[in-house]
Amino acid sequence: MRRFSLGDAVDRKVVVLEIQGPTLTVVRLKPDGSSSRQEQSLPSEAAARAAAEKVAQELLGRGYVEHGAAKPARTQPAAAKAAAAKPAARQAAPKRPAPAPREEPDGGGLFDDLELVEASSPPLARLAPLPTAAPSSEAAPKRKAKKAGKKKKGPGAANPDALDKRVLGAVAAVGLALVCGLGYMAYDAFLKPPSIVGVWKGSMVEHEIGQSLTHTAYSLALDEMKRATMSIDGGSANSGTYSVKGGRLLLKFKDEDGESFERTYKIKLERASLALIDPDSGKLLVDLIRQFSQPASEAQSGKAKAAAVKDLVDDGDKKVDPEADKALASIEFGAKDGAFKLRHPPGWQAQTGARPDNTYSYILLDKDPAKITVYADTTGSLISGSDSANPGDFPEGSEFAPVQKAHEHYAKTGTEDLSGYQEGKAEVFKDSGLGEGRMSVFTASAGMFGGKLKGYHVTLLLKDRRVSVLAYCHEEDFPKMRPTFLAVCRSLSR
After folding, report:
1. Structure pTM?
2. pLDDT tier at 239, thresholds 50, 70, 90
3. Domain 304-490 belongs to what architecture?
4. Which of 174, 214, 267, 382 is least enclosed by beta carbons within 10 angstroms?
5. CA proximity to 364, closest of 347, 377, 351, 348
6. Hey, what CATH topology would domain 198-295 get?
């Protein structure tokens, strides 16, 4: 068997010559995958080999390359006969130029230019394509598809590498923003110098042997425009300007008569505290705590207070029903030091505590969503003057009564744990066993996501104690909890 090929891998033509006895078989494989088969029977095997040699020479003349199986050995008589026939054939047929390898006509037969030994032999019949042509037919479309895919590439085609770069860029941008945010938070919390601007509140209790306790409350507001407002012990507020120099705070105010005066303090400023120190003696006067970062303007403050006084009014039924109160609050509970006692509803958690010097005690009642806290302290009694005043010296509901002062003082200094605290106008409360008192409706914030709180602030006075009550819940639950709050407040007694 001899194999010849012409062209590259895509357009390759293949011719196979096979000799079986006196029969010569020629098989042609075309680039499109089709094939043709021709057979010629000759008188002898030698004649078949001579004819095969002629076809081989014709193929080599057309540019075919022979490769594959080795040529079989020939007998000496056959070789001599082929060598003798070759010059005769070349003399009989004029020499023709070899056609271009790719211009061979598709319908031409391989035996058209050959002189066969038997001219009467019938032409070779075309057979069906060989099964081996199938891989060639599959390979050609794949190559064409690959070329077509390359043609589709252009500026608008999708690029996976570019997409990856965009994703990495977005991730890097988010990471950079996060790092910058954390860096700013760390700077603001730890590295940023503390600012004196803000609202500061605090109090100082002093005790000297042989003398009663003295309590002094301070409220100081400083803004970025160098304006200052200061009040001491809940008195009238003085307004003016301030300056800070050399660790000292200089306040310049005007009194009610328009006279200017100054106050100077040594200060120790931290992020959440401001200590006021007497510059002459070095004595600590008060340690103030920051309440707000930026004080509200006087106009805004006045509007907010007016709105609170107008809206925070108890419009519910104030009729006292002792039997109904006992049904709501039936369990008796007393403070640890015996300063007072009360009744609370069943199922509520109750706890109490007191200081060893019997100057302070408390009761805490809790059942979600409601809380009631009751404090009894001597500070409020000393500030209000209830230890020396006679309640009969003041008419009912007087704004100068000690209980009124004690009520207003606690609203300013005792509610720091409730942010956004606003209280309405105080009303007379005289339904408990502790005498005449004051009651106000208040609101406060329950935190960033907790909504709003609403409840009662009640103040009652003993001879040596101020009893303060904060009963509150979420604003939407207040109408339902209101009777219970009032029943507990009315149950207060010695």
Report:
1. 0.43
2. confident
3. 3-Layer(aba) Sandwich (3.40)
4. 174
5. 351
6. Lipocalin (2.40.128)
